[in-house]
Amino acid sequence: MKMITGIRFFLLSALLVLCAACAESSGSVKREGKINVVTTTAMVGDLVRNIAGEKAEVISLMGTGIDPHLYKASAGDVERLAGADMIFYNGLYLEGKLTDVLAQMRKGGIFTVGVAEGIDKSLLFSPEEYEGYYDPHIWFDVVLWKKAAKIVMEAFSHYDPQNAPVYKSNTESYIKELDLLQAYIYKRIASLRHERKVLITAHDAFNYFGRGYGFEVIGLQGISTDSEASVADIQNLSRVIAERRIPAVFVETSISPRYMRALQASVKARGFDVRIGGSLYSDSMGSPGTEEGSYIGMFRSNVDTIVESLSRSIEVADSEAEAAGDG
Q1: What is the pTM for the complete model shown?
Q2: 3-state per-residue secondary structure call for the chain
Q3: CATH numbers and ranges of domains, the chain
């Protein structure tokens, strides 16, 4: 096993040296064609495409339904990363098992940017249970995502200064779109009563959403899906749901629903029926080419699912309460 690991490291190192040599001989930016960009998550890829426009060819390693916390780089991924002009990733250990590979790419001389790592740390969550780490799910606060857009713009402007005005213009246009998204979110959630703004999901991906839009957020698993929900976790949360009569919980597209199904069964055993309110995009977006395959479309879809489900649940809960009162 040690011999295999050593061979892999040697091959990766050799590939990086070759890549650095090629980049050095061709200049910082390819004079012909587009900048070759590789991103990790689909969210980062969508952001980079909006900022770079036609100046870059962007490939995202992680497709629909892929969990970045558990993602392992394939030989093909390493080859794509090593052949990139620029690499953009989320950072703050979202990519988990890919983090070491990204560090090797940076050491090999590839222009590598962690979009979340450039944000002022005072704006990030770092609860005690995260053991000194920051919550990486910054895309669920549009305010933070606009800051990430500017970080991407600055990276492109530094790498390709002759096209800096293009990146600046693209960023300004995209931020206007994000402002419209923010207005849409506020308008949709305004219909919910304050006591019903409780979002229970599979893992702690929505803390920034909760802070930004006034929801109490409870994740069954921790910050990373690499951890597993215990029987005690399920029992404790089921008690909270039953006692507070929280009407709905949500599954996530990139995580198996088995824990949430177990939670639902545990709540039922306590004499209360909690509904699965729908499936939310958390660490992954929808399929390419669909509305949910973009950051803005994904976010709108999540908000619609949350508001519509909790609204329906409110109506059902109120009807049941009235029926009980009449009885």
Answers
A1: 0.85
A2: CHHHHHHHHHHHHHHHHHHHHHHHHHCCCCCCCCEEEEECCHHHHHHHHHHHHHHEEEEECCCCCCCCCCCCCCHHHHHHHHCCCEEEECCCCCCHHHHHHHHHHHHCCCEEEECCCCCCHHHCCCCHHHCCCCCCCHHHCHHHHHHHHHHHHHHHHHHCHHHHHHHHHHHHHHHHHHHHHHHHHHHHHCCCCHHHCEEEECCCCCHHHHHHHCCEEEECCCCCCCCCCCHHHHHHHHHHHHHHCCCEEEEECCCCCHHHHHHHHHHHHCCCCCEEEEEECCCCCCCCCCHHHCHHHHHHHHHHHHHHHHHHHHHHHHHHHHHHHHC
A3: 9-185 (3.40.50.1980), 192-317 (3.40.50.1980)
